[in-house]
């Protein structure tokens, strides 16, 4: 599971109101290089919850992202690619292979096995 | 600029929508103008289409699956004398640049609905001497490809579109479809397959309808073995898939036989994400919207595979209250699922698409139609955020077909829209009451014919409203 996915998910147990961001419990983290696509990153940047991404990246052992969300103009300008590269690495190259996503409100663990998060709810959570 | 667009004679309903979708992808802003050759039936392989440049025509043809070729028409007629006149009156300024002495060329003869011997073809090519070709012939790799295309008038009974007058076309090829994709991606050589894996040709058509391209994110909420996303990835899109069945999406049939391996097999980038989730209760964070460029899927409509959703009510052994999972059994608990009717499934899909697609994003999905209902107008699902731009039917049996719907997001999602959508859905639900119950579609498709005498009378009076050369009969 990449962090782009983590940034899109929340706990959706019935009655839970603050199911985002899910805490990351990492057991096995791997890195896979993929092609750098600045256009895609710029498009995604506008949709990202920055704080959640920074925290999740830290729990996977990557602390290079700036604490505060960079300005959209910095991302848009082609001048500074180093920040985009970091965003690329955090969003798309870090993988949580084994571990869990934990609901901040209820503590419910959503397991991640073989890189696939299981977000399915139990019968009594729907 | 008008181009002669010649199609493969298959999946007839899908041909023009594919060209239209690709025209938008390659920057054509207005809807396309089409024109039929004189006396031709709409299902003929020959169509004229207006495009703003040769480059667009070439791009469309190259990326398409069903376009045999796009041609600059130099002349046409009902006989070779008429063709000659027509070619001679085509302006020299358009012809001469392609006839120069330093270029190479080839002339091919194509026919539709008939065959010509090699000698007959040669004779026809030699009859074209009135065109001042100066260049050298090169059959392997010519600079310019010319085509002479011929079709005779046909009787209704020979399986070809009716009411066609003999027509001969001569034109210069601008582009053609890369059908080599199909043998490469054919399902029989795919390692991981499921019972409803999407056929490669159809998957590519769906990806084209969705305008899949580099830099875009395409989502399939019923990913299964990933057969649809593979085609989107082939066209350069980033992909994301979800499924409710963990066995399908995570385990596959072994370490090198799962959704990931299907991408690896073709050297395509792996999906950005695979998730196990339920579309009925999706886990998207609140505030997340307009993130996908396209959603492509083949929802489970209960004929070959039925839909499932969370909230099954299987009673756990030893527990009194069937609705509670005991603490000690929570880890590794496999929740039971309940039936998920098509009507509900489509509602959730439209809701998801309305919220998660970018503006002008495309929703492409199959929807089943019972063919005995064809007399009355079929009601397709609707949503105030979407405009239906293409409807293509693929006939699957005499009982039912599936229709590929392409919708474009034209209105942003809001609470007011949601209310309007709810009312539209209620109306749709009203119209599809019998589809709410599990197994109903399945039984309409597979029920045995009731009475043999009835079949006989039926076969006499029953006139298939759809001609036989359509769909899979091709």
Layout of helices and strands, plus pairs?
The complex is a heterodimer of chains A (126) and B (474).
Chain A: H1 3-6, E1 23-31, H2 38-45, H3 50-59, H4 72-76, H5 81-93, E2 94-102, E3 109-113, E4 116-117
Antiparallel strand pairs in A: 1-2, 2-3, 3-4
Chain B: E1 2-7, H1 12-25, E2 34-35, E3 46-50, H2 54-63, E4 67-77, H3 80-89, H4 92-95, E5 104-112, H5 118-126, E6 136-137, E7 144-151, E8 167-175, H6 181-185, H7 200-209, E9 217-220, H8 227-234, E10 238-243, H9 246-251, H10 259-264, E11 273-276, E12 292-297, E13 307-310, E14 337-340, H11 342-356, E15 357-370, E16 386-395, E17 400-409, H12 415-431, H13 440-446, H14 452-461
Parallel strand pairs in B: 5-6, 5-7, 9-10, 9-12, 10-11, 12-15
Antiparallel strand pairs in B: 1-3, 1-4, 2-3, 4-8, 7-8, 13-14, 15-17, 16-17
Helix pairs in contact in B: 7-8, 11-12
Provide an overview of this structure.
The complex is a heterodimer of chains A (126) and B (474). By secondary structure, chain A is α+β, with helices and mostly antiparallel strands. Helix content of chain A is 32%, strand content 20%. Chain A is built from 5 helices and 4 strands, in the order H-E-H-H-H-H-E-E-E. Chain A has helices spanning 3-6, 38-45, 50-59, 72-76, 81-93; strands at 23-31, 94-102, 109-113, 116-117. Chain A has a 4-stranded antiparallel beta sheet. In chain A, a hairpin with a 2-residue loop joins strand 3 and strand 4. Chain A is globular. With 474 residues, chain B is α/β, with parallel strands linked by helices. Chain B folds into 2 domains: 2-179, 2-Layer Sandwich (VC0802-like), CATH 3.30.2130.30; 182-445, Rossmann fold. Chain B is 28% helix and 24% strand. Chain B has helices spanning 12-25, 54-63, 80-89, 92-95, 118-126, 181-185, 200-209, 227-234, 246-251, 259-264, 342-356, 415-431, 440-446, 452-461; strands spanning 2-7, 34-35, 46-50, 67-77, 104-112, 136-137, 144-151, 167-175, 217-220, 238-243, 273-276, 292-297, 307-310, 337-340, 357-370, 386-395, 400-409. In chain B, the strands form 3 sheets. An 8-stranded mixed beta sheet of chain B has the order 2-3-1-4-8-7-5-6. Chain B has a 7-stranded mixed beta sheet with strand order 11-10-9-12-15-17-16. A two-stranded antiparallel ribbon of chain B has the order 13-14. In chain B, helix 8 links the parallel strand 9 and strand 10 (238-243). In chain B, helix 7 packs across helix 8. The interface between A and B is large, with 36 and 40 residues. Chain B: InterPro entries: DNA_methylase_N6_adenine_CS, RlmKL-like_Mtase, SAM-dependent_MTases_sf, TRMT11, TRMT11_N. Chain B: Keywords: Cytoplasm, Methyltransferase, RNA-binding, S-adenosyl-L-methionine, Transferase, tRNA processing, tRNA-binding. Chain B: One of its GO terms (biological process) is tRNA processing. Chain B: Belongs to the class I-like SAM-binding methyltransferase superfamily. TRM11 methyltransferase family.
């Amino acid at each position: 599971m990449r962090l782009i996915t983590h940034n899109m998910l929340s706990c959706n147990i019935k009655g839970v109101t603050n199911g985002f961001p899910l805490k990351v419990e990492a057991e096995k983290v791997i890195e896979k290089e993929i092609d750098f696509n600045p256009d895609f990153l710029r498009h995604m940047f506008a949709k990202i919850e920055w704080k959640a991404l920074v925290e999740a990246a830290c729990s996977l052992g990557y602390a290079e992202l700036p604490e505060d969300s960079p300005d959209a103009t910095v991302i848009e300008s082609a001048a500074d690619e180093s920040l985009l590269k970091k965003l690329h690495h955090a969003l798309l190259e870090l993988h949580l292979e084994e571990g869990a996503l934990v609901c901040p409100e209820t503590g419910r663990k959503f397991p991640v096995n073989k890189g696939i998060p299981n977000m399915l709810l139990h019968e009594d959570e729907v | 600029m008008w181009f002669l667009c010649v199609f493969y004679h298959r999946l007839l309903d899908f041909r023009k929508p594919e060209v239209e979708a690709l025209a938008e992808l390659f920057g054509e802003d207005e809807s396309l103008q089409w024109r039929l050759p004189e006396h031709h039936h709409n299902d003929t392989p020959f169509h004229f289409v207006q495009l703003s440049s040769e480059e667009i025509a070439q791009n469309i043809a190259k990326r398409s699956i069903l376009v045999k070729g796009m041609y600059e028409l130099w002349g046409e007629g009902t006989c070779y004398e008429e063709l000659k006149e027509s070619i001679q009156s085509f302006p020299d300024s358009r012809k001469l640049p392609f006839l120069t002495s330093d270029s190479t060329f080839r002339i091919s003869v194509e026919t539709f609905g008939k065959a010509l011997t090699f000698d007959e073809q040669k004779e026809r090519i030699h009859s074209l001497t009135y065109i001042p070709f100066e260049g050298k012939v090169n059959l392997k790799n010519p600079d310019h490809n010319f085509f002479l295309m011929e079709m005779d008038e046909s009787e209704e009974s020979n399986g070809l579109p009716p009411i066609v007058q003999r027509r001969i076309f001569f034109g210069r090829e601008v582009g053609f479809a890369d059908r080599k994709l199909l043998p490469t991606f054919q399902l029989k050589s795919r390692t991981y397959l499921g019972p409803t894996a999407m056929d490669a040709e159809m998957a590519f058509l769906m990806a084209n309808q969705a305008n899949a391209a580099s830099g875009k994110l395409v989502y399939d909420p019923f990913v299964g073995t990933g057969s649809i996303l593979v085609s989107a990835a082939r066209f350069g899109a980033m992909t994301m898939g979800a499924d409710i069945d963990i066995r399908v999406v995570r385990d596959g049939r072994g370490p090198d036989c799962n959704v990931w391996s299907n991408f690896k097999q073709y050297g395509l980038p792996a999906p950005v994400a695979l998730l196990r989730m339920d579309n009925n209760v999706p886990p998207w964070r609140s505030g997340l919207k307009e993130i996908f460029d396209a959603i492509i899927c083949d929802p489970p409509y209960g004929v070959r595979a039925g839909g499932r959703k969370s909230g099954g009510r299987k009673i756990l052994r030893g527990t009194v209250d069937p609705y509670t999972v005991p603490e000690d059994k929570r880890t590794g608990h496999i929740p039971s699922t309940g039936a998920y009717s098509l009507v509900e499934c489509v509602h959730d899909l439209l809701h998801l698409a309305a919220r998660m697609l970018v503006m002008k994003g495309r929703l492409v999905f199959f929807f089943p139609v019972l063919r005995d209902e064809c007399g009355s107008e079929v009601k397709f699902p609707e949503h105030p955020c979407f405009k239906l731009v293409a409807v293509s039917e693929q006939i699957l049996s005499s009982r039912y077909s599936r229709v590929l719907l392409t919708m474009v997001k034209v209105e942003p999602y809001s609470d007011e829209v949601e209310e309007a959508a709810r009312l539209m859905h209620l109306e749709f639900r009203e119209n599809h009451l019998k589809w709410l119950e599990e197994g109903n579609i399945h039984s309409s498709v597979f029920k045995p014919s009731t009475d043999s005498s009835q079949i006989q009378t039926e076969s006499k009076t029953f006139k298939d409203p759809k001609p036989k050369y359509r769909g899979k009969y091709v």
